[in-house]
Amino acid sequence: MYVKKRRSAILCFAWIQLAYLSPVQSKGRLLPILRPNGATANLSSPVANLTWGQIPLEFTMSPDLSLPFPFPQEAAFINIVHALKEIAHGDFQGAMPAQDFRTAAYPEPVIILTSPSGSRTIERKYVVWGLYGALLYMYNARAFGVSHFTLLWNNEEVGGIGFGHPYGDGLDHRAIDDTTSPENTEWADDNSAVPEDEASAGAELASRATAAGEVNRATENLTDLASRLSVTFTYAGRNMDKAHMFMAIVWTLATAAIYPSNERIQHLWTPVDQESPCKFVASAVPRTTPPYLQYFWIVEAVAKTAAYLVATNTYRQLSVLMKVDEVVVGRALLFHRADERGMMRGVD
Predict the structure, then answer these.
(1) What predicted TM-score, i.e. pTM, was given to this entire model?
(2) In sequence order, what are the residues at sequence separation of 6 or more whose Cβ sits closer than 8 angstroms to the Cβ of residue 56?
């Protein structure tokens, strides 16, 4: 009853269905999303060739319907990033409450999680995979609107993700600390040269940050912890397709969510390739004392990158300098795979 009530609230105008969902319909019923692209891939979509990476083949999604109440792709993107950022800091293999996510900048769509029948929790890994799959589906079906995705494991329902309107749906939406909205995100535009020897710069600053420590979720509030990170962005090359950048960022968060927040990145890290033209690579500055580049900081920096792109409405290759307590811990690149050789000289 609990699940049905939440779902009916999302799909309160279910009497209308968009005609362009017909590619994934058969004899009046909706088919699960096929892997990796299958019937949902629209050849005119900029992300039609993206794969599902290493998401298990047992996981599929069924888009129940999409309604003619649209929202901007930026809204779906930012709210998905916000949800992934919060979820990524938890145990990937563990369960979480069925809850809602939205940002101050984009009160709609509200992302509404529904648990399987008889439960009030849903496994985080299904939500992570589902959020990536939902955005990919929206692009391929050209259907950014009120919708609900049933999450399936071996064709058994394991939860759901809804995208709904925040008002008049009869739901008590949970207020969540909002640091992903573009207007609530602090960053610096780099109008000067980044130090060539970042390791030396980091060591120099470390002497003034003796209190800096490693990520410790057990003893530190996540909001306070995140405030220790500062990022500097530098545009570094060609223009990029917005959809490619959005999908690369969501895929990066979905992949980073697998790792414990306090695990260190020793040298280079990049998500498993899902054949996107846009790639993300992070590089750790060699350090012998804290702070270090850890997955917590990667997740936070990627979320800030998403907010920066939307706020500036500029979609180009990007370099990201990451500091924790004013100590340089690493840098990242978001770039076109055709420029990989030249761009990687900046992180090797």
Answers:
(1) 0.79
(2) none
